[in-house]
Amino acid sequence: MGPTFRVRIVVFTSGERFPVLLDQQGCPLFRPNLFALTQVRGRNLSTSTISNVLRAIVVLEHFLAAQGIDIDDRLEYGDLLSVAEVEGLVRSSRQPLAELGFRAAASCIQSKKPVQAKEAVRARPLGQHLKEVAPQVASTRLLYIRSYLAWLADDRRSRNGVSNTFLARLQSATDTTFRALDSRMRYSRAAGIGIEREGLSDRQLLELLRVTDPSCADNPWRDEHTRHRNALLVRWLLNLGLRIGEALGVRNSDIDSRLGEVTIHRRADDAADPRRNQPQTKTRARVLQLQNDLLAQTRAYILDHRSGLPKSQAHGFLFVASRSGRPLTIAAAEKVFEVLRTACPGLPKDLSPHLLRHTWNDIFSRQMDEARVTSANEQKYRSYLMGWSPTSDTAAVYTRRHIRRKAQEVSLAMQKQAMGGGKHE
Question: What CATH number did the domain enclosing 344 receive?
């Protein structure tokens, strides 16, 4: 078997979470972890960002292992990656991490026993080789890999006794590698022409609310607590536009039933949170209003379903695991949407917690139109409710999408009018 690299989150006694890249023996890899510590954590970036950087380096490490490339030896001689090797790295960046582990293993087998390698590839499930991550994910991976390679090259330049000839050779090699990487770090064509991701259609939204209703016969879960928890989780994401990390970080004490409000707090590296991969609030803390029906549904869940679970009283987090009563993890929450995608053909194949955030923004845009709110005020309101800075450009992304949709409607109306006018002539 080839080497298997993985990222593990270490929790310190202070509550800080720090991702670490491990090799197949479970030992930390020195260079990648030093890069994450000094160049990523040193910029005060989030745990999830550090994890994403290290997972990008996992892609690089798998590729180097599969190709038999020793990057340190390359740098010692003033070389880096050729254009052909960059092309192979780009292909690897498009693969899921689990797929890369298989490819690295198959490559190592092929170097020793070609027949076994072919049989291993043939034994794979039909169509498995077609799996790819989103273009934006692949481009982000390449961006992080580029930063890591640049850091390695800078480290080699900084050593004593380096000649001008060597520096020139290394500069030429890095220029070649980085030009090749830069030319291939492109998003999808849709992203290039300004088509942003959209939320659920009205029909899909009604279907989601129907199948997650605890009393629905098509509800894919049988456990009573799971049905009510998942229905509430979907309603919180839809009604409040929360990120999944924000929803999973809500505690019962954050909810003010008297005022009908919930405070979305920032609790990075919370020592009281037992989850290794702590759900976090990436945006600003804020106070949101809970609609009466949602507040009543939340109360009923806490009193009638959550309270009876073991270990649910040992912490204050709202959403809990059905069997243990421990705080619900990000992986378990994502599994909820995986089950919905599989069990409900009427729902989109890309259904995810974040898609509900997009849905909230689509509904918000329509509400602002009906209320005749100005674009400037709409952007302010959206930024507050989403937790963005008042000066953030993020709100403009959703505003542009809504403007595009309205412009298309006007264009169609003009075309119909023009066709009608032509008939009268």
Answer: 1.10.443.10
